[in-house]
Design goal:
By secondary structure, the protein is α+β, with helices and mostly antiparallel strands. Helices cover 41% and strands 23% of the residues. The chain has helices spanning 5-13, 24-33, 90-93, 117-121, 129-156, 161-176, 187-193, 198-210, and strands spanning 37-41, 46-48, 56-62, 65-70, 76-82, 87-88, 103-106, 110-116, 180-182, 214-217, 220-223. The strands form 3 sheets. Strands 1-8-3-6 form a 4-stranded antiparallel β-sheet. It has a 4-stranded antiparallel β-sheet with strand order 2-7-4-5. The chain has a 3-stranded antiparallel β-sheet with strand order 9-11-10. Helix 7 crosses helix 8 (198-210). It starts with a helix and ends with a strand.
Length: 224
């Protein structure tokens, strides 16, 4: 179902990078052509399950989406997370075999815009200029997504937990261009992201604070 005018306004207000350079009228025209719809999910809800065929890419309008991988033993691995404006599911929807190898969950109350990827990659018969802009934006976002996964590999490949913590916080400080930074993860989620347990993380954070390397209060950190 084509998004309503109110939902189109919501998309515009969210400043979605995929629609960069497009005005509200162009977004409205594209939304109808791209077989789009918006869905809401409560915290903890499953958005895409593992092995599900993925025909749409998701764009986070609000909230947070977590990518989870479960191994053969039933252990859940927190791979990464997506915030407002970021894509998810694109890796599988672009493949011939569209079965997802991970699951996506709403980490908090979340709204998602779903779009048909095939209709983005195959322009309409009118050859609209703004459709070409949309495809260009998509390729840029796919590159950024690959960089995020490379960053995750770089962080978790550090030899010890202290190095992982500092690598993660340094990366966040660079993205926020400040030594004072807010992270979107609570302690349990941060531990899972860093492939550690919560008690080890809390202990190492306390040691880093004692050593004068950083300070923190809940999700606010200061790199000293």
């Amino acid at each position: 179902m084509k998004p309503t005018k109110a939902e189109i306004a919501e998309i515009c207000e969210a400043h979605i990078p995929l629609f960069m350079g497009l005005d509200s009228q162009q977004i409205h025209a594209l939304a109808g052509h791209l077989d789009s719809h918006i869905s809401s999910f409560h915290k903890g809800a499953l958005i895409i399950m593992e092995e599900e065929n993925v025909k749409y890419i998701g764009i986070v309008l609000s909230g947070r989406v977590d990518m989870i991988r479960e191994d053969v033993w039933g252990n859940k691995i927190f791979i990464t997370y997506m915030r407002t404006g970021e894509l998810f599911g694109e890796t599988f929807s672009i493949m011939k075999q569209t079965a997802s190898k991970v699951s996506f969950h709403a980490a908090e109350d979340t709204r998602v815009l779903f779009l048909s990827l095939s209709r983005i990659l195959h322009p309409c018969s009118n050859q609209c200029v703004f459709h070409v802009n949309l495809a260009d934006n998509l390729y840029d976002l796919l590159g950024q997504k690959n960089m995020q996964l490379i960053e995750k590999v770089e962080i978790v490949s550090k030899p010890d937990l202290r190095s992982k913590i500092l690598a993660y916080l340094t990366l966040q400080a660079e993205k926020q261009n400040s030594r004072y930074l807010e992270i979107p993860l609570n302690r349990e989620e941060m531990a899972e992201y860093l492939c550690a347990n919560r008690s080890s993380l809390s202990r190492e954070l306390a040691l880093l604070k004692r050593d004068g390397i950083l300070d923190f209060h809940k999700n606010t950190f200061v790199l000293l």
